[in-house]
Amino acid sequence: MKILIVDDNYQIVETISDYLELENNIVDCAYHGEGALKLIEDNHYDVIIMDIMMPKIDGISAVERIRADLLCGTPILFLSAKDTLDDKIAAFKAGGDDYLLKPFAMEELCLRIQALANRGQRKDIGILSFADIQINNQTDEVRRDDQVIKLSRIQLKILKLLIRQAPNIVTRQQIMETIWGDESPCSDALRSHIYGLRNAIDKGFSESRLETIHGQGYRIKA
């Protein structure tokens, strides 16, 4: 296996690294979240071991970015002295797959690493979904109830924004600024894209997902 250890305690990193290498694993090391992100961008790992309290970028923030920005599905084991339920909840919500308290037995760490590696890459990373609509962020494929939907580039951007905010209302101004920035087109252009998006995702379905809230904006409803 190729394993990444992320911890600002050099002694812990060295101890774990030596043990794992004796078990014929390949090990990379980082000492803060920022270093971990750079390594993950350029390498594939079977398992990531992540501390929480670290300089530059802490473990929770790093894992959130690993999942949301890098779309990395590698199993992640949090290794931390933080022992409250709130700490564990935050770790799993960020995208962690397991949590082991310090101090720990090296044998247990290895068993957990092997179990995560056997489970393999997560399949839910990079999927935006709400109700029966799914967007694969890696391929930009859009499906509604397993039916593939073809969208233009701008329609896709609008749908991603609406699903990220769903079921909340997204104002016309928010859409204009997100899609076009300072070079916003006339309001008729947005209306045209919304019309095309609605036709694409609702065609052939009895229930409409894209709702216009007059005077406020748009939303994807369940």
Features:
222 residues; alpha/beta; five-stranded parallel β-sheet; four-stranded antiparallel β-sheet; 8 helices
Tell me what the structure shows.
- A 5-stranded parallel β-sheet has the order 2-1-3-4-5, sandwiched between helices. The protein has a 4-stranded antiparallel β-sheet with strand order 6-7-8-9, with helices on one face.
- The model has no long low-confidence stretch (mean pLDDT 94).
- The longest helix is centred in the C-terminal third of the chain and has 16 residues, at 187-202.
- The chain is elongated.
- The two termini are 42 Å apart.
- It has helices at residues 10-22, 33-42, 59-68, 85-94, 106-119, 153-165, 172-180, 187-202; strands at residues 2-6, 26-30, 47-50, 76-80, 98-101, 127-130, 133-136, 142-144, 147-149, 170-171, 210-213, 217-220.
- 43% of the residues lie in helices and 21% in strands.
- With 222 residues, it is α/β, with parallel strands linked by helices.
- The protein contains 8 helices and 12 strands.
Supply the helix-strand structural class. alpha/beta
Main sheet specs: 5 strands, parallel
Overall mean pLDDT score? Answer: 94
Into which percent range does the helicity of residues fall?
Answer: 40-55%
Instruction: Please mark out the parts with pLDDT under 50 across 5 or more consecutive residues, or reply none.
Output: none
- Strand fraction: 15-25%
Shape: elongated
Order of adjacent strands in the largest pleated sheet? 2-1-3-4-5
First CA to last CA: what distance? 42 Å
H/E topology pattern: EHEHEHEHEHEEEEHEHHEE
CA gyration radius, whole angstroms: 22 Å
Strand runs, count: 12
Individual helix count: 8
